[in-house]
Amino acid sequence: MDDFSVGGAELEEALKHLRRLNRMFGAAMPVEYGVNRLWEQSGKPASLSILDIGAGSGEINRSLLRWADKKQIELAITLVDATEEACLEANRLFANEPRVTIMQANLFDLPSEAADIVTGSQFAHHFSDEELPNAVAHMLKVSRKGAVLADIHRHFIAWLAVWLSVRMISKNRYILHDGPLSVAKGFRAQDWRMLGSRLQKVVGQAELKYSWRPLFRYSAVVKK
């Protein structure tokens, strides 16, 4: 969510509705795609730790747990969010999943090399063009292998689909406002190219590779 000023029950409800929207639009797929690429580029290690920034209730990570089971990877996931409501909801959802831990924190307060891979789903569009390179640079600092950014393709069809969908499933003002806004703040190919160029100026050798994924999504991988 873009605005944390209210919080409470309204934000908790928004998190539940957001999970439904994420399932409808395949939000987990570009994250899994990017993590799999970094895992393969790292030599397919038998164990892996992932730190998900701005995780919300963290439901999209269920896809990564299934992926790890299929690949026989010993996986540990840390869900990080700045809001108490999101952390409480994540604790409820993953209460019986020992591979998942929850932390209330800000990206810029996290220590170096805290996890193998740092992910951010629909996280990058919350930053301005000027702020984003530093945010991604810090994601790389927190990681040991690299970062995965999964975000929305800024496109009229995607905006219209979300605008209609949120009005069909929710009356929550967070969802009604932030759903279409997230698409409007999303990315096109030239935005990823610009980010990659600016990121190299911040961290040097980092190379960002992006790919379009189904249902108007992008997966961007930055190998450390």
Please explain how this structure is put together.
This protein has helices at residues 8-24, 28-41, 61-71, 84-93, 132-142, 156-169, 173-184, 189-203; strands at 47-53, 74-81, 100-104, 115-121, 143-152, 207-213, 217-223. Strands 3-2-1-4-5-7-6 form a 7-stranded mixed beta sheet, sandwiched between helices. Helices cover 46% and strands 23% of the residues. The protein is of the alpha/beta class and 224 residues long.
Order of helices and strands: HHEHEHEEHEHHHEE
Instruction: Give a short account of the largest sheet.
Output: 7 strands, mixed
Tell me the structural class: alpha/beta
Number of strands: 7
Report mean pLDDT, rounded to a whole number: 91
Task: Tell me the radius of gyration.
Answer: 16 Å
- Level of helix content? 40-55%
Distance between the termini: 28 Å
Q: Which blocks of ≥5 consecutive residues have pLDDT under 50?
A: 1-6
Strand content: 15-25%
Number of helices: 8
Oligomeric category? single chain
Name the overall outline: globular
Query: Major sheet: order of its strands?
Result: 3-2-1-4-5-7-6
